[in-house]
Please model this.
Amino acid sequence: MTTVDHPLAIPADWRDFLALTKPRVMTLVVFTGLCGMLAAPQAIDPILGFTAVLCIALGAGAAGALNMWYEADLDAQMKRTRGRPLPAGRMDRQSALHFGVGLAVFSVLLMGLAINLIAAAILTASILFYVIIYTVWLKRRTPQNIVIGGAAGAFPPLIGWAAATGQVTLLPFLLFALVFLWTPPHFWALALFVKTDYANAGVPMLPVVAGERTTRHQIGLYTIPMAAVAVVPWPLGLTGPIYGAVSIVATAFFALLAARVALRMAADGDTMAPEKRLFGYSVAYLFIMFGALVVDRWVA
Model:
């Protein structure tokens, strides 16, 4: 990690601190955590439920802020990230560090004191995994960064379920596995059409070090176990027919888009339209799957 220093021509304001939390990423994290809580067999008091979701959001925001603090030098070299508060010079790195650490400590303490220690322990693990394992250790060292680091974004359903029940059973572990296996196809689809950005920053993303063809094949390969994990809660009797039907249709469409990416050869000047469609749908896919899980739980 190298230091990025800029004259602070524009002082940071609340929007810059909000940007540090990666609010678009946080939306999906909060949603999967909330759905994990609502799908649990025990209802949680609404005030405690709100507190748990708030803690998940703050923990995700803390991880995002610490990621931006550590990766300020990389962000400055990438077109899609150079406008962030640190590389743009609107905030100093120490402020980002203090903000991230403060959010992390507060979110874990509040979760432990207001909800339960199991949920607080999983929240702690998710923050540390994203910051230390993914950001510090894996991101700059291996093209497997997304594969292993994907666990960081898979924790919220476990946290939500644990907040409601005080324990973790098979279904939330399958939800964890779904997000974990979804992450490589989702992120590698993005990496294919922003490959130049990663190459310029020296980040060893799979398309940069192994090429587009290998990346496309890996997207197809990871989609297979993801599809199996997505559908299996229904035949195991862990969900009802609403989730079963939605999971089959939504996952089949995901697999179709992934197959189109996996089996094609991109030409020079390609607009990467199939990759962009897969990336866009992959975000909607998790909202569809977890939304169906909650509807299935409450309708049944």
About this structure: The chain has two domains: 10-168, 169-300.
